[in-house]
Amino acid sequence: MKEALHTAASLRARSESAAAGLPGLLMSAERLAATILLGDHGRKRAGSGDAFWQFRAAQPGDPRKSIDWRQSARGDGHFLRETEWQAAQSLMLWVDDAASMRFAGSGVDRPSKLRRAQTLGLALAVLAVRAGERTGLASMAEPPRAGSAQLIRMASALMEGGEVPDYGAPRPRVMPFGSRAVFLSDFLGPVEAVTDALTAAADRGVQGVLLQILDPEEEAFPYDGRTLFESMSGAVRFETLKAGQLRDDYLARLTARRAALRDLCARTGWRYQLHHTDGSAEAALLPLYTALERRK
């Protein structure tokens, strides 16, 4: 009984913590998306043509102006008229929430890798929704949806807590044929999972971007002398008296990992991009947005 009460209390605490951070994440994503919408690159597209594709049932968050009232009058619900181009567009996101993504170096106002990934991912979702596209999280079973209500669902899912491994591995559950996708992670875990995910995506005609997000300390390895290294979950600990002697080997492995990711993207038709958390989110969003626009 006590264990059940403890579990319930822990679940409630995580839920309240996620709910408290939800407005801030949404606001940050909206502001970030506005830098694209208000710039030279911001534009809404009707698609490659107006060829009729299908009627679909209206969903929460769909604008009233999109409802086809003539078709809706023939049935019991409201229906939207979609063109062929609009029906084909879906943007799927995988945001790594593993423990390693919680790392933030000693910079004063530097966000964690996780927070930057969440903000960038949700900003891309905002841009997709405002362009009339569907969007969703590849790690969840729900299909991509249109409308502003979907942004709230995605933000809530991104803020969920719980037990996570040290390093993340993309295992998409939903990846519509011919859609676009963005994977946001530090990609410091097993590369085999990334290979499997991108190969499967390419087989379904899915193209997109791998955005590797790193803290500048992970690039510079500014450690020397006696140092205790500990994984973010605390599961792995390593202490050395000569941390500086590890720098060259560490940097060589990091360079090799980056090269492997670039090669994988080249083979599967994806793009590789790198972002450091001491840089601005705007500087990362524009290349992402531009790369996805070219995939249309």
From TrEMBL:
Domain of life of the native organism? Bacteria
- What is the protein's name according to its record? DUF58 domain-containing protein
InterPro entries attached to this UniProt entry: DUF58
Segments forming domain DUF58 = 55-259
Q: Which organism is it from?
A: Jannaschia helgolandensis
Known Pfam families for this protein?
Answer: DUF58
